[in-house]
Every structure is written in structure tokens, then in C-alpha cells.
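Structure in, sequence out. Go:
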């Protein structure tokens, strides 16, 4: 399958099966903004739940916060975003379209790709989005939507130290929205203007930085590899000296081999003491930490920062498969199936009664009610069983439970496995146990 074709199919499936819709679509949409539909929201929530469990719940020395989206303007002076958070912008002198100059160079364009016109010299374009607070016109105060979610963690660091009684080394995690006025949003969910990030800021003594950095670098790669089908599509890429952020001593990206090239999935950054030092200087708060040995220092930071929406997109790409199978009429047909890890799939179990008759519906309803207290379950009783299987394959449902007329006699149902399409006849009382065991077996993190 051509890579361009794959991306078109992913975008089409995402809308057709209720994963992702263009935001404000009935008014023509807005570039760089998307809404997550019923299946997309469930899948995204599953991803965040897995990340939170792995990063926070399973670790004694990591806690979480949920910071405000709108922040004081001085936060972004201290962080350097107002001064240096920019991309090179080139504008067409004819059609006035604007483009990322570095992207045009990468793609081999020296004229406007829209009309062939002459391009302006690149200039810096700040990506921060701002708003105004207050009710009196002329007296409103400028504030900013955060350009990266991690700044909230630095702002709450002192409160965490005082209220959670954590000692170094310890981490603070957050999943939250960030906003960037991207010049050219593109590649579907990959580059947006409103997106979600999952961040860990891990605070350590200066002499412990290398050990902590190496640990989290490998830990984050292991998490992605465990959940994806194709490990060969993941790699590390080290930042060259001339592309390191001003605060970074070392930086590695976890990259995914996407239809549009190797692209960043998550960054692991050696931030040193730059962030707390800057916020201490601008706010007047002393962030000096004194350890049990009496040594005083500004904590250094290992950061792992990834895009939730990017991960969502790359998991869809990794899971997408087309297979030739025999259909209900015996003829060959294409089966589209998302082979997502069962713990990520938006629907865990589909309950499929073969008939709408009261006896079958009653048994199917009771199975649905029992399972839905623990799993996301979909009840589907329309169309042939073959078409229902195909619908569930397209949204990645790992297990389908078919209730037939024999079920009324032997109290057994058929469980169908998504990946193998094999069917197993089991007693109704064992459905929960079987599904729960399969879920646990598929999660090795």
C-alpha cells in the first residue's frame, strides 16, 4: 500500500467510524482543530489511562497535577517563549499564503507551492496564542494560552514539595492541553493548533542526572514498543548540537516511521536547572533544595514530553490492516481491521444477538449489563452477523460475543477473536473471566 493512500484511508476511517471529525465542520472547519467522536474519545481516554497508570499509579515517587490552560504573561517571559518560541515564516508575494520556510526547503520548493509566486525572505513568527482578561475595554490584561503543558508543573513545584512531602528524586506528571499558532498545520492530527500533551518532569540532584536520564529514555521507548505491533517503526534520534533547545544539554526523540516520514512521537530532554532557575529569578521564589546530606542546589530536570493526539494517530497507523478473506456469500472481500492492543481499543466487547426476538434480547441484555460495569461494551443488533463483525473489525473491537438461539438451550455463547477470527463456544458465566484474562495477558508493561 502506498504511504499516501494509507494516510487517506486513516483519515477516511477516522471520520466514518466516529474517531475524529474536523472541528466546526458545518461552517467549513478551522485548520489545525479536530473533535474526537465517540470511538475516538474512548480510545484516547484508554491511552491516557494506560499512560497515567504506568507513569504515576505504579510509582511511589511520582504525583500528578492538572494545571490551568491560561497562565500569567510573565510565565512565558521566564520560559523564553515570548522571546524565542518561533518558526521561520515565508509569505507568497502574489497569493499571500504563508508557509513554514524550513518545510518548503525540506520539500524542495523555492517558489510558492500554491501559485508559483515569489516568496518573501523568512522571518520569525511567534507561535504563542494570547487572550485578554477583564471586562473594561481598554483595561484588559493580556494572558497566554500555554504553549506547552510542562510550565504548569514548574509553577506548582514548590506547592508539591510542601504538600506531598516528596523528596528528590521525584516526578510530577500532567496530561493537558497546549496551544500553538502553527503556520501550516498538517498531516491530520500530527501538527495541530490545539492539542494534548503528556509530560513528566523528574527532579533530581545534579550528580544523578545521567542515571535518571538514561532510565527514562529507555522506559518511554519500552512503553511504546509494548503497545505497538511493529517495533521496527520506532527509533531514537539524537538532536544535533545546532538544534538543541537553549535549555537542553542532551535531547533524544522517539520517532515513528509514518506515511509522511520519520516523525517525533516523544522527546526526552535533559533540561538541567534552567526552568526552576528562570522562574525563581522572575518570581522571586527561592527554589533551592537542601537534601539529607545538607547539600543545597537547584534541582535538575529530566523531561519526557509526548503528544497524546500524535500517539493516537500513530497507534491508528500501526494498527491499520487490510486482509483478503471469504465473505458471507463465499466470495473474497477486503477486511479492514484495526489491530489495536485490546487495552487501547475503543470498544472491548461487542454483544451481538442474532435476532431481535425477546428471548435473545433478554439474554443479550443481561450479558451487556454484566460486562459494561467493567468494560466499554457495544450492543449491535442490526444487519447480518458478517456485516456486524466487519463494523467491529474497523473500530478495533478485540472480542465479539454472539448470542444465538442455541444459547437459550445451553446457556453458551460464541466469542470471536478479532485478530485470528477464531470462534470459541463458552458458558455465559465465563465471559467476564475470559475477556479479563485476555486483557491482562495483552498488557506487558
Amino acid at each position: 500500500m502506498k504511504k499516501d493512500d494509507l494516510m487517506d484511508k486513516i483519515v477516511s476511517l477516522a471520520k466514518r467510524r466516529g474517531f475524529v471529525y474536523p472541528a466546526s465542520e458545518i461552517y467549513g472547519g478551522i485548520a489545525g482543530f479536530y473533535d474526537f467522536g465517540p470511538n475516538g474519545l474512548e480510545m484516547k481516554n484508554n491511552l491516557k489511562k494506560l499512560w497515567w497508570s504506568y507513569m504515576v499509579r505504579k510509582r511511589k515517587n511520582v504525583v500528578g497535577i492538572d494545571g490551568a490552560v491560561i497562565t500569567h504573561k510573565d510565565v512565558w517571559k521566564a520560559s523564553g517563549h515570548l522571546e524565542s518560541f518561533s518558526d521561520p515564516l515565508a509569505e507568497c508575494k502574489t497569493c499571500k499564503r504563508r508557509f513554514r520556510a524550513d518545510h518548503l526547503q525540506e520539500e524542495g520548493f523555492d517558489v510558492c507551492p500554491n501559485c508559483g509566486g515569489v516568496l518573501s525572505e523568512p522571518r520569525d513568527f511567534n507561535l504563542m496564542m494570547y487572550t485578554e482578561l477583564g471586562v473594561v475595554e481598554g483595561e484588559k490584561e493580556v494572558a497566554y494560552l500555554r504553549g506547552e503543558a510542562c510550565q504548569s508543573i514548574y509553577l506548582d513545584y514548590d506547592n508539591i514539595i510542601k504538600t506531598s512531602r516528596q523528596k528528590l528524586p521525584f516526578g510530577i506528571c500532567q496530561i493537558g492541553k497546549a496551544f500553538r499558532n502553527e503556520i501550516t498545520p498538517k498531516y491530520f492530527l500530527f501538527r495541530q493548533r490545539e492539542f494534548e500533551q503528556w509530560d513528566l518532569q523528574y527532579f533530581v540532584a545534579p550528580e544523578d542526572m545521567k542515571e535518571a536520564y538514561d532510565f527514562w529514555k529507555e522506559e518511554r521507548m519500552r512503553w511504546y514498543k509494548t503497545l505497538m505491533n511493529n517495533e521496527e517503526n520506532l527509533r531514537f534520534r539524537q538532536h544535533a548540537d545546532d538544534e538543541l533547545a537553549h535549555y537542553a544539554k542532551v535531547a533524544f526523540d522517539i520517532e515513528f516511521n509514518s506515511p509522511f516520514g520519520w516523525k517525533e512521537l516523544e522527546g526526552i530532554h535533559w533540561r538541567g536547572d534552567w526552568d526552576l532557575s528562570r522562574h525563581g529569578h522572575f518570581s522571586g521564589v527561592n527554589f533551592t533544595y537542601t537534601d539529607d546530606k545538607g547539600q543545597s542546589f537547584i534541582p535538575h530536570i529530566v523531561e519526557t514530553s509526548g503528544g497524546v493526539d500524535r500517539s493516537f494517530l500513530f497507534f491508528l497507523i500501526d494498527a491499520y490492516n487490510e486482509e483478503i478473506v471469504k465473505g458471507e456469500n463465499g466470495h473474497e472481500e477486503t477486511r479492514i481491521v484495526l489491530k489495536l492492543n485490546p487495552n487501547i481499543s475503543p470498544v472491548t466487547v461487542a454483544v451481538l444477538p442474532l435476532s431481535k426476538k425477546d428471548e435473545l434480547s433478554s439474554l443479550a441484555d443481561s450479558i451487556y449489563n454484566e460486562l459494561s460495569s467493567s468494560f466499554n461494551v457495544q450492543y449491535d443488533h442490526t444487519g447480518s452477523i458478517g456485516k456486524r463483525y466487519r463494523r467491529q473489525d474497523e473500530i478495533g473491537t478485540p472480542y465479539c460475543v454472539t448470542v444465538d438461539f442455541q444459547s437459550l438451550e445451553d446457556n453458551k455463547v460464541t466469542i470471536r477473536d478479532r485478530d485470528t477470527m477464531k470462534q470459541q463456544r463458552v458458558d455465559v458465566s465465563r465471559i467476564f473471566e475470559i475477556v479479563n484474562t485476555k486483557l491482562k495477558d495483552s498488557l506487558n508493561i
